[in-house]
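Page 47, continued from p. 46.
Same chain as before, 318 aa.
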Amino acid sequence: MPTLPAISFQHVSKTYRGKGREVRALNEVSFDIQAGEFFGLLGPNGAGKTSLISVLAGLSRASGGQVKVLGHDVVADYAAARKSLGIVPQELVFDPFFSVRETLRIQGGYFGVRTDPKANDAWIDELLANLGLADKADANMRQLSGGMKRRVLVAQALVHRPPVIVLDEPTAGVDVELRQTLWQFIAKLNKQGHTVLLTTHYLEEAEALCGRIAMLKQGRVVALDHTSALLAGTASTMLRFKTDDVLPAGVAAQARVTGRTVQLTARDAAEVETLLAAMRAGGVKVEDLEIGRADLEDVFLEIMQGGRPAVVQPGVPA
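Result:
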């Protein structure tokens, strides 16, 4: 008997109406996330990621289509669907009247976890230790820094041991230490069988962590494939260097410039030489030249800018 998908989006549409106009946030979005996957959901601002997560979480109702969590419809069987999910939201939302441990006990109670202080404290202690919160267990939430509050949000999402974990921009604006701590812990949970859905603007995180990736643009899925396949389908070579000089017009038209850093794609060694020759002819002084493989950011920009056809391969993990 085939295993049920951890999350299933089938023909999901969402239309917002107001002030005499309609906005189509989601347009026939369909894909499955298999149990045990570490799956990435990427897209620019306004692509529909938050709308899709809101429908999944039950915070918003789809205008059309169906969403299921481990076979439970998020509308018709909402209690079972919610209990299967642990969601880390983008926003810092907390109750200022309780300590960290009290907050986690209360959160567990919402999902039917026993409220006896000793019943779930072993798991709470493990969460606190793995998220670097052990010394803050008895601190009031108001006393915590923004980064510490975000760690508590992660712990809240995991306190009822959900089989499916949704991380919505979990490392936005947080320090390197929290990122490392969080990813080590989430990777361990994923290896133990938990399914993880990640939305992030840090594409290096998605490339390192996610086995498959879906990309949204204007409410539609424009790419869906294994991460390795997405990377293999783009330019194989990337030139990175620094310069203070003005690039020749032909080079500038295809360059991605961040401050002094310039990135250029090349299909083969001949194109690399052509680009370098053009800069020499233009008198461009190049510093710290690196030649390496293209990364997920290059793939993302290529797809979003329409330089590459949609890639939709709704396969399951290898």
